[in-house]
Design brief:
mainly beta, 6-stranded parallel sheet, single chain, 17 strands
Length: about 170
Amino acid sequence: TALSGTAMDITDAELAFIFAQDVTLISAGKFTVNGVTATNTANIAGTTLLDGSGEVEFSSGASVFSNGLTVQADDLVDIDVAVTTSSGNLSIDGDADNATDSNDNVDLGSGVTLTATSGNIQLDATNGSIVLSGSGDTVTIQTSGGTGEISLTDQVTDSNTATDLSLSTHT
């Protein structure tokens, strides 16, 4: 049974049954990602691509992808929980079609941490902004392994009270 307003509902446990080099999941509407685990994405050897013509939302439970993750939304990527790649790059684009829409932002909620354990992080919002929307808690974007780079390709704004942004590349 699909969640209300969605065309498909794939649970974390069902992801364990996908064996592939790369996986592309496409939605004509909104994606909601909740509590994906590295264990259940370990059979995807390459990159998981979430391609939504609407919003892509990470909410409720933190998500860990065992390899790379690319998120492409036509209309907003809303991140309210931690998102991690254990190996591979983390790429997030809130304006994948590069056309002005109602909301082309990458929205980072209060206290969110984005981590690429062994890879790079890129945030892009061509006609929007990378928005720190929390209530003052620090947003952390970090890589580890000594080779990761962080790229914020568009304007970073703070929509509420002085939210700190921490960028870190660990060795």
